[in-house]
Specification:
alpha+beta, Arc Repressor Mutant, subunit A, Alpha-Beta Plaits, 3 domains, six-stranded mixed beta sheet, four-stranded antiparallel beta sheet, 11 helices, 12 strands, 40% helix, 24% strand
Length: 338
């Protein structure tokens, strides 16, 4: 009887986690019965892979602790995780590894991957661009404690489309709104703090747009190809200046504050800041452009800044700010009365 080699290798991959696995668990993971698992164990023994078995309630199988592991086997998600860790290390100013060490380690990982996956991983290496390292722009990244999650296949497919200049379609679900199919010419993937963005040309809107990867699903590659504009800057597309969006309010406000102070209260992905020339005693002013879904959010951010400001556009924002001021006064007086 011919033993399925792929399942034997999959079993070895499961055992490489280092913990003890029950026969029932391994059978479920491999979609076979416990008897077949025991046959696979015999096959590993034939290959001189020492597997220890323990009896009892917490018994099962594990690799012998003294065994030198064979070459590691990665699935797609794990391969992306390893290469992503290397890319992150390459842009970090800390750690013991030199730039050369990181580059050679990345090359070695890609070299031992299956050819198809290696090509897709290489596309990620070529395509991903990072914004400034933490602290380079004077602002610490937000410590949310949770990172937006997305499928490794989404990153691999979008990177492939960007490298090979292939139009892609995908389902995009905005923060407020329903999922829609988007057709995009992908330029690059940008990693900004804890969030990943696709920068590309939205065909329906005929404009450069950015899309969060954790809101993208069902990516499909089209046969259509495209030529990207020569002056495209993916990072600038993510951080600003901001392209007009018919679904958002385009706000312009003059604020007397520093750039780091503004960025503490307004995300870079929604705000573009332009320093204004000083005039006599009138110094330290910025022109801030905001692309926002709700004017109430802008008014609350302006209040949190606690700095002098002048609303330039839209007129509706002045009314929203005035209404917020009245509500704050009313709440303050009510509390005093109690």
């Amino acid at each position: 009887m011919v033993r399925p080699t792929a399942n034997v290798l999959a079993l070895l991959e499961l055992l490489q986690s280092g913990r003890t696995h029950t026969a029932a668990e391994l059978a479920r993971r491999l979609d076979v019965d416990a008897r077949t698992v025991r046959r696979y164990m015999d096959r590993l023994a034939d290959l001189d892979v020492p597997v220890e078995s323990t009896r009892g309630r917490y018994g099962g199988y594990r690799l012998a602790r003294s065994f030198r592991l064979p070459p590691l086997m990665f699935n797609d998600d794990e391969a992306v995780a390893v290469v992503w860790a290397l890319l992150s290390a390459a842009r970090s100013s800390t750690g013991p590894a030199s730039q050369l060490d990181i580059e050679t380690a990345t090359a070695k990982v890609c070299r031992v991957l299956p050819p198809a996956l290696a090509q897709r991983i290489d596309a990620v290496v070529q395509t991903v661009t990072f914004t400034a390292r933490a602290g380079e722009d004077g602002v610490a990244p937000p410590a949310t404690g949770r990172r937006p999650h997305f499928s490794a296949d989404v990153l691999l497919d979008l990177a492939h489309g960007a490298v090979h200049r292939r139009v892609v379609t995908f389902t995009y679900t905005p923060r407020h709104g329903r999922a829609r199919t988007r057709e995009v010419r992908p330029y690059a993937v940008v990693a900004h703090h804890e969030t990943m963005y696709l920068s590309g040309h939205d065909v329906a809107h005929d404009a450069v747009r950015t899309f969060r990867l954790d809101r993208i699903s069902d990516v499909h590659m089209r046969q259509d190809t495209f030529v990207p504009p020569p002056d495209i800057d993916p990072v600038l597309a993510v951080l600003g200046p901001l392209a007009p969006d018919p679904l958002r309010h385009e706000v312009s406000v003059r604020i007397r504050a520093t750039v780091p102070h503004v960025r503490q209260f307004m995300p870079e992905t929604l705000v573009s800041v332009q320093p204004l020339p000083d005039h006599a005693d009138d110094t330290g002013w910025l022109r801030v452009f905001v692309s926002a879904e709700r004017l109430e959010w802008v008014a609350a951010r302006l209040a949190a800044l606690d700095c002098p400001f002048v609303v330039e556009t839209p007129d509706a924002l002045r009314q929203v700010v005035a209404e917020l001021g009245r509500r704050l006064i009313d709440m303050s007086e009510l509390r005093s009365a109690n």
